[in-house]
Amino acid sequence: MKFLFIFNHQPYDGSDLTWNGLRLAKNLHNRGHDVRIFLISDSIDLARDCIKKPENYDNDLVAMLKEMYNNGVKLKVCGICQARCGIYKNEPYFDEKIKATMNDLANWCEEADKIITF
């Protein structure tokens, strides 16, 4: 199956929302599913090297996402949001190839068997 995860929230917002979404995506990928992650709004900070794990978090969400990406999870990040959203506006993504458009998200939505938002 093709799973599309759409993240919207700031990665370190005081909740486990992003962490739980990444854990589910990783689990499904490890089961052999086609997993795609699209970051939009403030979640885009998750794809920036400049963001550091707060001391009160026990999981490095950026490192977790990078590992998943390097292991074959497909990742795209809103290009417009890069300058508009997140704490680190205008900072580059850890890989420029992941920059995407709303058209890319629409395509992934059409191709997905299931869409999950966090």
From TrEMBL:
It holds the Pfam family DsrE. One of its GO terms (cellular component) is cytosol. This is DsrE-like protein. Gene3D superfamilies: DsrEFH-like (3.40.1260.10).
